[in-house]
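INTERNAL AUDIT FORM
Audit reference: QA-55
Scope: verify that the stored structure record matches its stored sequence.
Auditor: D.O.
Record contents follow.
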Amino acid sequence: MTDARTRSILERHGLRCTRQRAEIYHALVSTSSHPTAEELFGMVRNRLPGLSLATVYNTLDAFVRRGLARKFALPPSVGEDPSASAPAPAARYDADTSEHIHLISDHGKVRDVPPDLGRRLIDGLPPDVLDELERRMGVSIDQVRIEISGTSTGRSC
């Protein structure tokens, strides 16, 4: 799916528009599930039979470097022994690069917090604490990102 809009977006971000990049980008923007590279690979491999998982990883890395996607790693599962030799949780990707908050469940499901609640959380941060943080850490805060983790209660929205 190499449409003019996708081509324009990729080129605006300094990326050549290839069929692989266009398909991966389209799959990423068409889901709110915050997929892993492996999940995206599964979403596009029927349309691109010669596609490799390495190409998906490389493409996602390029998207993240150019500001087309965010990459974040899930924390270890609740109750998991951090010293155990279990593999690290897979990174997840989000094409929504706007300022918003993620809720990560104990089952690894990632959801966007409703924008009105996310905005209230961010706006509720005390400015004096942010000022002191900048002073004490010697930085200028450009953006605040919040990720919330929680345990499923059995209720669903």
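Auditor finding: record pair retrieved intact. The chain has a mean pLDDT of 86.
Action required: none
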